[in-house]
Specification:
385 residues; 10-stranded mixed beta sheet; alpha/beta; 10 strands
């Protein structure tokens, strides 16, 4: 078992030992949570949230200046996020990277998303965030303290990593793109509702106040907080005098790719047919990892089976997300292109060493620069004869 596997195995063992530990919280009902939910928060179990989301996507489609609506979806994948950063920067250098009207991110993809959203102006900051070596100290163990805490690793390094790279200039740039009609969405997973929650990050950045900036950062931290490895993040919600504090973890717990809410993917509403306002639409998915099964003789031990099983589930969720998105794209007449890590770039989702992340970054940059690696799963349909 490699080092990442041993890390995950240790996480599982320690959390099993600490399973009896609980922490007090102020309880609330589902109705109270709904009342406290601000407009930047989407819970797609609620029909109103689905309709609001469709309306906002239509606004984004209306901002397309080049005649094509482009949506970029960035998957989770831990340290493999360096691959996605490389793809985007190589794509910029190639010169044909689209101007995305909609950008979404899950887990490590959520950390990439704000930089991708502001266009090529975010390339330098994106490269620094995933290659400067600051991530090397990310997995700082609590030691035996993990027996009395809700995670194996300390939350401070992840929080510091986000705070140091997501600065005021980036938030202002995100807010400006939002004002132009584009939309940036990040997914987290609510431990309270057991559902994926989507956040309108551009609207949040546009508010400009201190509380909104802190919430913006906390959402990014929550989306990247792998359950068991990092503690859940408490997100304070406030709306019209109603308040609640919701616990959130890694957005990839429910879905590893965000294109549209699950009910929308399963059965697109009639309103979706006008989603792109008659313009050609394209969906681009960057998968930070290998979604396909990889053969390896499994080791017959409890921890090895647990690690292998976790990897199987993550890959299966990703493939399911892509399959449902492909069906949606074909239903709506949108194009769909998917890129993932090449075989020569081994997955290392928990290896945050600068050397490993640079390898992943360069692998992505090469593919972005030469334009190879994209798998076309659907072609856009236009009304042109």
């Amino acid at each position: 078992m490699g080092r990442p596997g041993r890390i995950l195995a240790g996480c599982i063992l320690l959390m099993l030992l600490a399973a009896c530990q609980t922490y007090p919280r102020v309880e609330f009902t589902a109705a109270q949570l709904s009342a406290a939910s601000p407009t930047v928060r989407y819970d797609f179990n609620l029909e109103d949230a689905q309709l609001r989301f469709v309306r906002e996507l239509a606004v984004a489609a209306g901002s397309a200046g080049d005649g094509t609506v482009d949506l970029l979806a960035l998957s989770g994948g831990g340290a493999n996020g360096a691959f996605g950063a490389g793809v985007l920067n190589g794509w910029s250098a190639r010169g044909d990277r689209p101007e995305f009207e909609i950008v979404t991110g899950v887990s490590t993809g959520a950390l990439i998303a704000p930089f991708a959203f502001i266009g090529e102006a975010g390339d330098a900051g994106l490269a620094r965030a995933f290659t400067d070596g600051e991530s090397e100290g990310l997995l700082r163990s609590r030691g035996l303290g993990a027996l009395f805490r809700p995670s194996v690793f300390r939350p401070e390094p992840l929080a510091q990593l986000v705070v140091s790279h997501v600065d005021e200039d980036l938030l202002r740039a995100v807010a400006e793109q939002h004002r132009q009609g584009r939309r940036l969405y990040v997914a987290t997973t609510s431990l309270d509702t057991q559902t994926q929650i989507v956040w309108d990050m551009g609207a949040l950045a546009q508010r400009g106040d201190k509380a909104s900036r802190i919430l913006f950062l906390d959402i990014l931290i929550a989306s990247a907080s792998i359950p068991v490895a990092f503690p859940p993040v408490a997100l304070p919600l406030s709306n019209d005098g109603n308040q609640a504090v919701e616990l959130h973890v890694d957005g990839g717990t429910v879905a590893n790719v965000l294109v549209a809410p699950e009910p929308f993917l399963l059965r697109p509403p009639d309103a979706a047919q006008d989603l792109t306002r008659g313009l050609p639409g394209r969906i681009w998915i960057v998968i930070n990892g290998h979604p396909e099964p990889i053969f390896e003789t499994a080791t017959l031990s409890g921890l090895s089976v647990a690690v292998r099983s976790f990897d199987i589930m993550r890959k299966a969720i990703t493939r399911s997300d892509v399959a449902r998105t492909a069906q949606l794209a074909r239903t709506l007449g949108m194009g769909l292109a998917v890129i993932s890590m090449p075989d020569e770039a081994p997955e290392a989702p928990l290896d945050f060493s600068q050397e490993s992340m640079l390898r992943s970054y360069e692998a992505g940059r090469r593919l972005g620069l030469d334009g190879s690696g994209w798998e076309i799963l659907a072609e856009p349909v236009t009304d042109e004869p």
